[in-house]
Design a protein that fits this description.
By secondary structure, the protein is an alpha+beta fold. Helix content is 63%, strand content 8%. A hairpin with a 6-residue loop joins strand 4 and strand 5.
């Protein structure tokens, strides 16, 4: 007997057996809601001898299953004002916090690989292969997305002086204030290395850069987010010009390398051709009656075929050398810029409405959790 209430009396008043009541007390069986209501009605002032924590758990968690109906009842019917006040407080905090965030504007360009006609070169390459040599194939396929995201272009963007920055003629390092010493640096009188400043600038730049490629059409979108609309457009157009310049330079260098290779090969083939022609001439002078001798005629035919094959290689190399000279000075673009960047009208981030909604949701979750813990 506890608090002058025996187990037999309590079990009889709430309509269960004494064994069932013992199971309730020891936590072996979950207490149904109707039994809890009867206990409260029969013994409103009783010192609860049951495991209170277990009752709370079993009240809205029954056999490991959440009773959402009861949870919503606790939240919306008993303490809805507390939940609303918490959501309003969190929402106001989120809205005020979002106002302190910096506005970013996104500007971008559209790139498309140029479809250069190299059918003439391909025909000459086929002739060279037929003649038994491989003069190499000019590969103009560049991974533009990798070039756009390269460190080479990133460092040029960071170190360039921009006219659309608020103070004018500043680099992005100065614009972002990365070269300024922080509070701790001033306190300990320490300086930040240039490499650390550059790495910080590169990390921020790559976090603001976005490069997307449509695998089906080949269209490439390069966009950059900056704190100023005009600066975003200027940086995006600069990236496009640097991509074109880099690929054009590499293409010209490849054309010059190809011309040098073909010219060296042409010298070797010419010498070989002259040697074969001299051998054929000497053979005919030494064997004037080779037409009537089967063995001599066969040797003559072999030497003649060697000369003709080498002549074909020589002619092909001459044609290829002329095309290489043309390609070296030809300024055919490898990529085309379809759309230049224009200063955007609307900001790209932050989305203040979304931030406020997320804070409202956080307020609802936290306040609801508090109510369930205290219930």
């Amino acid at each position: 007997m506890i608090n002058e209430v025996t187990q037999e009396e309590m079990a009889k008043k709430i309509g269960v057996s004494r064994a069932t009541l013992i199971n309730y007390e020891k936590g072996y069986t979950s207490i149904p809601l109707d039994i809890l209501e009867k206990i409260k009605q029969e013994y409103p002032d009783i010192d609860n001898t049951l495991d209170s924590k277990k009752i709370k758990k079993d009240y809205f968690i029954n056999d490991g299953i959440l009773d959402f109906k009861l949870i919503f009842k606790i939240i919306f019917k008993q303490r809805v004002s507390f939940v609303c006040k918490s959501m309003i407080l969190f929402g106001l905090f989120g809205a005020l916090s979002s106002l302190m965030l910096t506005n970013y504007y996104s500007a971008g360009i559209s790139l498309f690989p140029a479809d250069n006609n190299v059918s003439g070169v391909d025909q000459l390459q086929s002739l060279a292969l037929t003649a038994g040599i491989n003069i190499g194939q000019k590969d103009q396929n560049y991974n533009i997305t990798d070039v756009a995201k390269s460190r080479r272009i990133a460092e040029k963007v960071i170190s360039n002086k921009w006219s659309n920055i608020r103070d004018g003629n500043e680099s992005l390092i100065d614009f972002w204030g990365l070269s300024k010493r922080g509070f701790l640096s001033k306190m300990f009188n320490s300086s930040v290395s240039e490499s650390a400043i550059l790495n910080s600038a590169l990390n921020k730049y790559f976090s603001l850069l976005n490069v997307d490629e449509d695998r089906r059409t080949g269209l490439i979108q390069v966009s950059i987010e900056m704190e100023s609309p005009s600066l975003a457009a200027e940086v995006a157009n600069f990236i496009g010009s640097e991509i074109q310049s880099y690929i054009q330079t590499q293409n010209s260098a490849q054309a010059a390398k190809e011309k040098l290779f073909i010219n060296d090969r042409l010298i070797v083939v010419k010498a070989e051709l002259e040697t074969l022609e001299d051998n054929l001439k000497n053979f005919k002078e030494r064997n004037r009656g080779y037409e009537v001798s089967p063995d001599l005629f066969m040797k003559y035919s072999q030497k003649l075929r060697e000369v003709e094959a080498k002549q074909q290689v020589y002619v092909t190399l001459q044609q290829q050398l002329e095309l290489a000279r043309i390609n070296e000075v030809k300024q055919t673009p490898i990529i085309n810029i379809l759309d230049d960047a224009k200063p955007p009208v609307n900001k790209s981030k932050p989305n203040r409405i979304l931030i406020t909604i997320l804070f409202l949701l956080a307020g609802f979750i936290i306040s609801s959790s508090i109510l369930l813990v205290k219930y």
